[in-house]
Amino acid sequence: MTSFEEAETEETVTCLHLTFYHPCQGEKMMFRCLNFCRREQVRADEMAKFGRDSSVCRYNLMDTRVSRIQFSLQFYRKLHTSEYGFEIKNLSKKTKLTVNQTELGYLNKVDLPWKCIISFGDYQILAEIQEGESMDYFETHLHLAEAPISQERWPQHLPSLQPIPEDGISPSIFLSQGKSPTEIDENEL
C-alpha cells in the first residue's frame, strides 16, 4: 500500500460565512479588528462571541454602541442525526437582536437558519452555513459588504417559498388574473 492509500480520510469542515455591513464603516472603521477573507478555525466546544470587549469576544466590533458582548454562536450536533448547526444567543441587555424576522431579547436563543440576516442597531450580518462533517472544530470566513445586505445579496439568493408545480406553471399567474388554479384529472386532458 502507498502512503496515499493509508492516509486518513479527509473530513469536510462546517464553515460559517459571515458578511458584515454597517452604513458608517467607511468613516468609523468598526470592523477593523475582524480578519476578513481568511478562514479561521474555532474549536467545537468554544462559544464564538461578538462584541466590543476584546478580552471576552473573539470577534471585536469597534463601536461604543455595541454591547461588551453582543451575541454568541454555539456549534452543536443535532440530536439523533449527524447534522450540525449553530445556536445564536443575544447577550446584550440593551439591544434586541433580530434573526430574519425573529426578535431576540436578552438571553433568548434560536437555531441559526442555514441562511439568514442577523441585525442589531445599524449592523447587518448575512450568515450562511456551509455543511461539513468535522466534530472537533468549525471554521468562520468573514466578508465585508459594500452595500446593505438586504439590497446587495439577500433577495436574489432567497429560495422560492412557493412550491413549483410539476407542470412548471406558477399559481401566481392565475392569481394575477383574478382566477384560482383548478385541479384537472389527467384523463380529462
Q: Uncertain segments of ≥5 residues (pLDDT<50)?
A: 151-177
- Which value, in Å, is the CA radius of gyration? 21 Å
CATH architecture type: Sandwich
The portion of residues assigned to helices is 10-25%
Side by side, the strands of the main sheet go 2-12-1-11-10-7-8
* Shape category: globular
What number of structural domains do the residues give? 1
Strand content: 25-35%
Label the structural class. Answer: mainly beta
Total count of strands: 12
| Average of pLDDT | 82
**Span of the ends, CA to CA:** 63 Å
Q: What count of helical segments does DSSP give? A: 5
Here the CATH topology equals Tumour Suppressor Smad4
Give the C-level CATH assignment: Mainly Beta
- From N to C, what is the helix and strand string? HEHEEEEEEEEEEEHHH
Biggest sheet features: 7 strands, mixed
Q: How is this structure best described in words?
A:
It is a single chain. The chain is mainly beta and 189 residues long. It has a single domain, classed as Tumour Suppressor Smad4. Helix content is 12%, strand content 33%. The protein is built from 5 helices and 12 strands. It has a 7-stranded mixed beta sheet, with no helix packed on it. A hairpin with a 2-residue loop joins strand 10 (115-120) and strand 11 (123-130). The chain starts with a helix and ends in a 13-residue tail after the last helix. Residues 49-121 form the FHA domain.
